TrEMBL record:
One of its GO terms (molecular function) is cyclic-di-GMP binding. InterPro entries: PilZ_domain. This is PilZ domain-containing protein. Pfam families: PilZ. Residues 13-90 form the PilZ domain.
């Protein structure tokens, strides 16, 4: 697993994570990429995309009216963790989780 040296992987997570599966668009200097949001918290998320973006890459994830700038912090296979530039509100996180659950129920 590749980690960004600026992050402290041993530090306890500040925010609770919600496991989901939601398609998103990912925009970076490497172009546009389709991916799947696998989990989300106020501070970051885990994505699956091929090819994954490199550690340190700045990106924006987009889904409908949500656009969130972030930075890749770790990569393992096609999965990678991102840290949001600014933490999401609890309401934004719940909106993402609700959209994923509504999609699953359809």
């Amino acid at each position: 697993m590749t980690f960004d040296n600026d992050s402290d992987e041993s530090e306890a997570r500040r925010y609770g994570r919600h496991r989901i599966m939601l398609a998103v668009n990912i925009y970076s200097v490497h172009g546009e990429l389709g991916g799947v949001l696998l989990d989300v918290s106020r501070g970051g998320a885990m994505l699956n995309a091929h090819p994954p973006l490199p550690v340190g890459c700045k990106l924006v994830i987009e889904r409908q009216h949500l656009e969130v700038p972030a930075t890749v912090r770790w990569v393992e296979g096609n999965r990678f963790g991102i840290q949001f530039d600014d933490p999401l509100s609890e309401l934004e996180v719940l909106s993402i989780v609700t959209k994923a659950r509504q999609r699953d129920a359809a």
